[in-house]
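Hello Y.,

Per our agreement to keep a running log of every chain we model this quarter, I'm adding this entry. I've kept the format consistent with earlier entries: sequence first, then predicted structure.
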Amino acid sequence: MAHTTFEAGSAALFRPGTSDAEIEASALKAIRRRNTLVRFWQIAILVFVIGMWELSSNMQWIDPFFYSSPSGVLQRLYEWATEGTTEGSLWYNLWVTMEEALIGFFAGSITGVFVGIGLGRNRFLSDIFSVYIKAINSIPRVVLAPIFIMIMGLGLPSKVALAFIMVFFVVFANAFQGVREADRNMIANARILGASDWQVTRTVVIPSAMSWIFASLHVSFGFAIIGAIVGEFVGARFGIGQLISIAKGTFDAAGMFAAILLVMVVTLFAEFIMTLVENRLAKWRPQQHLDTQ
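Predicted structure for the entry above:
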């Protein structure tokens, strides 16, 4: 029979004479112990993977020409940071990609939220536009990159357009579904109390859909990065995607992994910022309890 960590660590506390302060202190201690254990295993797995990669490369268990090594990847990043790349400063190329991704992310997210909530609240319009949305959504987004580049050129607009498309449908689908999943009893009670459609949407529907929307935003920045990099990979003068394309063309495995690592770090940092914003805007949401087997 499965038990949660909280239950396992606190079961002994439910006895006569135990104060609330002692129970709370024990619960906090169990939480800290679990968090420490989780962090230990996260670091241990990372060290093991990197160590095995480095060892396998040094011992020739894998071909360093194709797989490089962690030390080779870090060396390439150091060279790019100090000496620049063949396409200029590393930081300028990173900024180009981030600019494209950020503009596409914010534009796609805001539009997706508004359209998702609007169509979710208006069944008549959603029935009209649903077939068109499904048709466009069925197109693999990456195949639009050559079309956008042909229409808008190799500059910023084509990459932003692809990042926008990558983000919009993810956010739209979650916002739309979140609105549809709003508690009908709460909506009915609000209407009985005399709330207008806008008041119902603002005070009941949108808060109900926030969890859906934030869930989509957590993955959407990654999709925005994908859109920007794929666009650069197809055709661009600067950007991380262009660096990957050049590294691929010169069989520079260390360069490809270095660019991927750079994108990974930036995306994880954006995810961290998103989590902070979500926690700040959703203070009303109950805290999640420990739920490990």
